[in-house]
Design a protein that fits this description.
Elements (H helix, E strand, L loop, with lengths): L17 H28 L6 H7 L17 H14 L1 H21 L2 H12 L5 E4 L15 E5 L2 E12 L6 E7 L5 E7 L5 E5 L11 E12 L10 H36 L1 E2 L2 E2 L4 H29 L5 H25 L11 H13 L4 H13 L8
Bound molecules: flavin-adenine dinucleotide.
Flavin-adenine dinucleotide binds next to β1, β3, α9 and α10.
């Protein structure tokens, strides 16, 4: 009987372009050779592997589908596959890259002036400058629309005051986009450069997911920045949301990467582990679990591919992105939990790699909009009723 260890069960690769397949292979190879062999140690110590930044830069992927300004200008599917493969390797690296290339660079590409794009995007594409995206506040997560950080106009400057929480890369980033409310109560994105007085990031401690990437608490005390540092086309929270919709599809791809990794780890383990005189794959319940895991992986892959195509064609709506993020993060969480269980006691040892995915998927389930918030965005689309407004 033929057996398969292939996670591309419906031959999705045949639907990809040569460029997309090449990019996917490049990232997969990078993760297999550079990331997976070293990452558990960093994860355990809650240290960030700075040594990987120049290696990641050499792949020339940052900026993904952004056209021009030294960015690769690849298809959105190719950009999604990068997220999938990085997450299959390690979620912390995926988040570091996603915050930089997705949230920060997309904000500048989508909302920046020509000068802002020229100034930041080429250096960020080379990863000589690293970006961060500061939206969430201690008192405003899901209701980020109610953010309280202020940007007061003062002559040729803005003065920023407030606080942010959970901001990835912010403790070492060269530029952090701080979302704040101006004198008219409108939300804008403000480029705060490293070392600006009054900008104080502190790395958050005690995280039990994505331990190898750092998020920061930030206090902003009379942070004075030039008025031209406001992202030129950011005039309201709708502009912020447009960036989040674009990057949310990336999180849907990322979830697939966790499920692929979990399935691969579980299958290999079940093929080798002997109990009751037979390898685990001989038992019906194990086969049933593997079949369901593969079904989830396959449906997530196809959903993401179609979402990527719609995004490329400019047809992806906020609800489409939310449905994919909700669906994939939920399914990935199930697949990862089944895999962890299939490894028995070894499933909680870092050495077998599944424990890291098991912890990390919890962050994916929650960030860039929680599972509940995604379902409420889809619910709004279905019913025409907004069920999560504060009014
Ligand atoms: P809350 O909003 O307090 O939610 C708590 C619970 O209440 C959730 O289960 C939620 O679904 C539920 N809930 C909230 N409102 C409703 C409602 N109306 N109806 C029903 N249930 C509701 N933010 C950034 O700006 N930049 C970053 O780089 C960044 N990186 C992150 C990295 C990690 C690892 C994590 C964990 C978070 C990061 N975040 C970042 C923040 C992230 O986006 C928020 O954690 C997320 O939006 C949820 O906000 P919260 O944690 O404050 O939860």
């Amino acid at each position: 009987i033929a057996s398969t260890t292939n996670t591309d069960f419906y031959l999705m690769d045949e639907l990809l372009t040569e460029e997309e397949r090449t990019i996917r292979q490049k990232v997969r190879h990078f993760c297999d050779t550079e990331v997976i062999p070293i990452i558990n140690d960093y994860w355990e110590r809650a240290a960030f592997p700075f040594e990987l930044i120049p290696k990641l830069a050499q792949l020339k992927l940052a900026g993904g589908s952004i056209k021009g300004y030294g960015c690769p200008g690849m298809s959105t599917v190719a950009a999604g596959l990068i997220g999938l493969e990085l997450a299959r390797g390690d979620a912390s690296i995926c988040t570091f890259y996603g915050v930089h290339s997705g949230l920060a660079m997309s904000s500048i590409a989508m909302l920046g002036s020509e000068e802002q794009k020229q100034r930041w995007l080429p250096a960020m594409a080379r990863m000589e400058k690293i970006g961060a995206f500061g939206l969430t506040e201690p008192n405003h997560g899901s209701d980020a629309v109610a953010l309280e950080t202020r940007a007061q106009r003062d002559g040729d400057s803005y003065m920023l005051n407030g606080s942010k929480r959970w901001i990835g890369n912010a403790s070492f980033a060269d530029v952090v986009i701080i979302w704040a409310r101006d004198d008219d109560g409108k939300v804008g994105g403000f480029l705060v450069e490293k070392g600006t007085p009054g900008f104080e990031p502190t790395v958050m401690k005690g995280k039990v997911a994505k331990r190898a990437v750092w998020q920061a608490d930030i206090t902003l005390t009379n942070v004075r920045i030039p008025a031209e540092n406001r992202l030129a086309h950011s005039h309201s929270f709708k502009d912020t949301s447009s960036v989040l919709t674009a990057t949310r599809s990336g999180v849907a791809w990322e979830a697939v990467g966790h499920a692929v990794a979990a399935y691969e780890i579980a299958l290999k383990y079940a093929q080798e582990r002997v109990q009751f005189g037979k390898t685990l794959v001989n038992f019906q319940i194990i086969q049933d679990k593997l079949a369901k895991m593969l079904a989830n992986v396959t449906s997530m892959q196809l959903l993401s591919l179609r979402l990527g195509q719609l995004q490329e064609e400019g047809k992806m709506t906020a609800a489409m992105a939310s449905l994919a993020k909700m669906n994939n993060a939920r399914l990935a969480r199930e697949v990862v939990a089944d895999a962890r269980e299939m490894l028995g006691g070894n499933g909680i040892l870092l050495e077998y790699h599944i424990a890291r995915h098991h912890a990390d998927i919890e962050a994916v389930f929650t960030y860039e909009g929680t599972d509940t918030i995604q379902s409420l965005i889809v619910g709004r689309e279905i019913t025409g009723v907004q069920a999560f407004s504060s009014r």
